[in-house]
Each structure stands twice: as C-alpha cells, then as structure tokens.
Amino acid sequence: MAAMTLYQKLVRTHEVARLDDQHVLLYVDLHIMNEYTSPQAFAGLDERALPVRRPGQQMAVVDHVIPTHPVPPAARVIADPASALQARNLKRNCVAHGIALFDTTDPGQGIEHVVAPERGMILPGMTVLCGDSHTTTYGALGALGFGIGTSEVEHVLATQTLVYRLARTMRVRVDGVLPPGTTAKDLVIHVVHRLGAQGARGYAVEFCGEAIAALSAEGRMTLCNMAVEAGARAALLAPDAVTLAYVRDRARHLSAQEWDAVLEDSRGLRTDPGARFDAEHVLDAGAIAPYVTWGTSPDQALPVTGSVPDPDGADDALARMALRKAIDYMGLAPGDALDGLPVDRVFIGSCTNGRIEDLRAVAGLVRGRRVAHGVRAMVVPGSGAVRRQAEAEGIARQLIDAGFEWRQPGCSMCLAMNDDALAPGERCASTTNRNFEGRQGRGGRTHLMSPLMAAAAALAGCITDVRTLGQERHE
User: Fold this and answer.
1) Residues 275 and 309 both lie in one domain
2) Mean pLDDT, to the nearest integer, of 24-42?
3) Residues 243 and 358 grouped into a single domain
4) Residue at a domain's end among 245, 279, 313
5) Rounded to whole angstroms, what are the CA distances from 396 to 31, 113, 378, 400?
6) Residues marked as binding?
7) Which of 279, 307, 325 is the last residue of a domain?
8) How far apart are CA 110 and CA 409, in angstroms?
9) Which contiguous run of DSSP H or E holds residue 184?
10) Rounded Cα–Cα distance for residues 176 and 190 (Å)
C-alpha cells in the first residue's frame, strides 16, 4: 500500500463509499450543533418526518447569542426575542430527538469548541463536524474536524454521514523554539500572514516540527482553530504523549478496554515516511515575534514593532484598493506604528483563547497591576468549567482586582450576535479569530493578538509589546 498522510488515513477509516474520484460518503463520529445553524436542518427533518439517525452522536450548545452578564447560571436570560426563539427552538428539537444539550442555564454551558474537548468528547482518530467554521479546532487532538453548512447539518442528522469532497494536502513544519513573549496565537497569526487568507484554500493542513511538538494541547487548539483563516478545510496534528495525556484526563467515561483501543489506534495516526503532500512550507519559530493585525482580514498582520503598510507598494490595483479600504476602515494611515496605538476596549475569550491556560497567562501578567483609565476590559471564559476552575485557582479574583470584568461563558464579543459589542469607532485589542468589518460590532475596529498582548494593551491603554511591559516606553 502506498504511503499515506494522516489526513488520508482519517478519511480512509471513515469512508462508507467512494462516490467518484473527488467525493466519498464520510461517516461522522460526532456532530455538534449550536442555536443559529441548526433550526433549518431540524425543520427539514420535520417536513419529511425523518428521525435523527443516531441521537447519541449529537451534542448541542447555546453559545453565540447568549448574554454573558455576570449573573448566576440559573439566572441567565436571553432578552432579545429573536435570539431567545433560537435557543427555545434548539431546546425543543433536542428534547424531541433525545440529543444532549448544554442549555442557557446549564452549569456546563460554554462555547462548543471549548466544551467538547474539555468533556472528553474528542478522541484521536474521530471525525467531528459542526455548523461552524472553527471546527478545525479538533485537529489538535488528532481528529478530523471541519465546518459544514445547514443543508449538510440536515444530512448528518438524518444519516450520520456526509457527502464529502476530498481536500488536497499541505504540511507546515515549524522548526526551532518560540521566543519569550510569543505564543501559539502569535504563531498562527504568523502562519496566516505568511500563507495569506486564501493560501490554504482547499487544503487539509498538517502541522509538525519542534515548535509544534512543544505546544500544549490548548495551544495546539488555538493553532488549529485559526488555520481556517488561511482557508484551510482542516488542520491536523499527529497525536502524541501531550495529546493522550490531555484526552485521558478528560475522557473518564472510557473503560480500560476502550482506552486501550484509543492507544492502539493512535499509534497509526501519523503520516507515513515517504508520503507526499501537495504543498509544503517550512517556518522558523525563532523569527516569530508577538503579532497584531492592523487591517480587516486575519492575514493583514505584522509584528507589534511594525507599521501600517503603504498601499502604493502593493503589486496590483486590486491589492492596493483592498489595502486602502482596510486602512480607512481601521482609522489608520500608512506608516502608523502599531506599538502605542490607543485602544478603547480589550476582549479576552472566544473559542480561540478562552481556555484555562489563556486565563492563567493573563492573570500572571496583570497581578498587582491595573487596567488603564478609560479602557473597558472583559474576560469571558470559554465554558462554565473554565470559569469555575479560574475561580478556584484565584485567577478570577486577580482579574477583578486588576479592573477586568469577569463574565459568564459564551461567544460574547467574538461576533456581534449578543449584548457584547463594540460601538462605532471603538478600537479593541481582541483574542478572537476574525477582524472583519463589523465583526465585533458595526463600525468597530478589531486588532487580533494573543491573550498576553491583549492583557498588555489593557494595562498600557494602547497596543504594546508585552516583551517590554514594565520597561520605560521610548518615545
């Protein structure tokens, strides 16, 4: 048999039928839903009187529209009528079909891509689908995860399969060691910047190399989560000791025999020597600095020491127009320095950076310091479990003492589908994954960065190089 990539192995082990040279019928191990991409799918099932084929392999959460006001979980209420209707419909559908739901007032509620891994639902070798593009997150644990559309959600509910178009394969090797002050978030923004917003379009991307192996499981989730911002259809890491330790600690529902099967399967979940990729890239981790986006696409990013580019230096008229549009929307000018740019808001959270590791890093930086006057800084944990752990470890108290708002879990200000949104013209240092126009609120201006960099911006009142925080700023 020819040498195979990890991606090809995952597809092969879930292939129900080969439909043609480009498509297979793919079996789905776990399907995750939220309140805004599932209603039409359930309506389609109802119209044809079809049941959900395998309710036990479905899971649902309310996460996008839920307010994150700091009230007890039992008191959480979605006041917006349209959003409340979405949540009620999801609950009704889940009850009718026997699907597990983390509802509005459930203590386990949180962001789908945080809840599923922390609950031990994601195992190496699985296929995991969700009506959300950041389902690529699960590749961090050696699972094939990707987002699907509403019609595909309906198909999965009815059949537990998907008509799947095969992806091309790409390998991104990151050699060396990340310097102090740089994190998995800086690494992935650097990757997206280098590849471009469409650079991985149509590819399943496998990450490897010394710098990747050194990342924690949570850091790997950050990496795979944002790989989609380069157009990747999937992002993968071969499971290793880090993966298995993370999963074993959370998948406590598995019997000893079941865990032995996971270990056995994991041994083969790696790219064979000699397997060929359609594209390959090699990057040097040692050259990566803390990154900040300056524009309205995640690839429009630079090291924090950089300056806004001059559109006249672009290769063609279309690129020049796009750069000018982004610069104008962000209220910047060519040559403006990123370091020192004032911010109005700081948001720390999301499925990219709302895990306990992220909050620990922030708390370590802000201990004994205060959020700058005039800056509103929010921390939104990725789940109820993360929130409780942060409170038990004293992290929440450190954040509150430093002047941060300590909120309930949810997608929150990652996207303007709930109460947490930017006002027109407000500039935000954000740990989220997208900086599109209006993403965090109509007219809002978003700069993506790591939790450490966002915390530094909160303390300084401006975008600042976390590596120099506490040192005298040079004018």
Assistant:
1) no
2) 95
3) no
4) 279
5) 32, 22, 12, 6
6) 351, 411, 414
7) 279
8) 5
9) helix 184-195
10) 15
- Are the C-beta atoms of residues 329 and 445 closer than 8 Å to each other? yes
Find the helix packing angle between 217-227 and 356-366, rounded to 10°.
110
Closest CA to 395 of 354, 346, 356: 356
Binding residues for [4Fe-4S] cluster: 351, 411, 414
Q: How many domains does the chain have?
A: 2
Integer Cα distance of 209 and 140 in angstroms: 14
| Tokens at 319, concatenated | 């690129």
Are 133 and 152 in contact, with CB atoms under 8 Å apart?
no
185 and 273 both lie in a single domain: yes
Nearest-CA neighbor of 216 among 191, 190, 187? 187
CA angle 47, 50, 55 (to 5 degrees): 130
- 312 occurs within a structural domain: yes
Average pLDDT over residues 329-354: 98
Q: Are residues 236 and 328 in the same domain?
A: no
CB atoms within 10 A of CB 101: 20
Shared domain check, 224 and 191: yes
| Residue 167 is assigned to a structural domain of this protein | yes
Torsion angle in degrees (nearest 10) through CA of 421, 423, 426, 429:
0
For residues 425 and 345, state if they share a domain: yes
For 173-224, write each residue's pLDDT tens digit: 999 999 999 999 999 999 999 999 999 999 999 999 999 999 999 999 999 9
Q: How confident is the model at residue 471 (pLDDT cuts 50, 70, 90)?
A: very low
Helix (H) or strand (E) holding 322: helix 317-329
| Structural domain includes residue 122 | yes
Please give the Cα distance from 262 to 394 (Å, whole number). 35
Model-wide pTM > 0.85: yes
**Domain of 434: which CATH number?**
3.30.499.10
Contact criterion met (CB below 8 Å) for 179 and 288: yes
Tell me the per-residue pLDDT of 234-275, one tens digit each, with 9 for 90 and over. 999 999 999 999 999 999 999 999 999 999 999 999 999 999
Distance of CA 342 to the CA centre of its chain: 26
**Do residues 315 and 273 share a domain?**
no
The C-alpha atoms of residue 205 and residue 200 are separated, in whole angstroms, by 7
**Mean pLDDT (whole number) for 318-325:** 95
pLDDT on residue 7 = 98
At residue 318, φ and ψ (nearest 5 deg) are: -65, -45
Identify the band that residue 1 occupies on the pLDDT scale cut at 50, 70 and 90.
confident
As a whole-number percent, the residues of the chain with pLDDT over 70 amount to 99
- Asked whether residue 427 is domain-assigned, the answer is yes
pLDDT band of residue 470 (cuts 50, 70, 90) is low
Query: Could you tell me the residue range of the domain that residue 354 belongs to?
Result: 293-466
180: tokens are: 């102090």
